[in-house]
From TrEMBL, chains A, B:
HAMAP family from the UniProt entry: UPF0342 (MF_01526)
Source species taxonomy: Bacteria, Bacillati, Bacillota, Bacilli, Bacillales
Source superkingdom: Bacteria
Gene3D superfamilies membership: YheA/YmcA-like
Family membership: Belongs to the UPF0342 family.
Pfam families in the record: Com_YlbF
Protein name: UPF0342 protein P9B03_20495
Length: 114, 114
């Protein structure tokens, strides 16, 4: 794992220069700069984080909590700036998935016919 | 996403040359070449795949099925060749996780203070 860092870091630099990364950067800045969008997004995210923590702790989620989280998600996605940011997130996720797909392929091939 | 493939492919070539990848390759070959290890591993994996498919289909897993899967996992891990392969898998997973950690870091940084 010594010289692989050269390649990972080179990839990371190129990654930060992709249109996908730059688009996410721009859309996050647009949300950050709009008080309304920022508040909608942060409350949506805070609710999500709390529910995930409860779920990971093995606690049951109440119907009311789920409905509230769904409402917050709906409200957030009705905001054009947040929607653009979420779409940019998905675009960038696809780049990361592509990296994983290409790295995982030779690993899976090792098991071929086993 | 045009020139990032150069970097991904370069990384993938280095990845295939890591000690972690070569160790997995060797340990998989050792399992493949040992009828007993191969049978233990493939039945363990087949049981796992079936349970995962049931789970993804939303079907409840029976206690007996879980006990059977656990038993198969225990048996498999008692085999030194399979154990070596599973440990090599974990070592290689850590390399892939490291790639993801380094790529994800600048993405998370975009949200700092939001
Ligand atoms: Ca607005
Ligand atoms: Ca044996």
């Amino acid at each position: 794992m010594i010289n692989i860092y050269d390649d990972i870091n080179r990839l990371e630099a190129t990654f930060r220069n992709t249109n996908e990364f730059k688009l996410l950067q721009e859309t996050v800045e647009a949300v950050r700069g709009d008080e309304e969008a920022k508040n909608l997004f942060t409350s949506f995210r805070d609710i999500q984080v709390k529910l995930q923590q409860k779920q990971m702790a093995g606690e049951e989620l109440l119907e009311d909590e789920l409905a509230y989280a769904q409402k917050a998600a709906q409200l957030a996605q009705q905001n054009v700036k947040i929607l653009a940011m979420l779409e940019a997130e998905m675009g960038l996720s696809r780049v990361i998935e592509e990296v994983n797909r290409i790295l995982t392929k030779p690993v899976q091939a090792l098991y071929d016919g086993l």
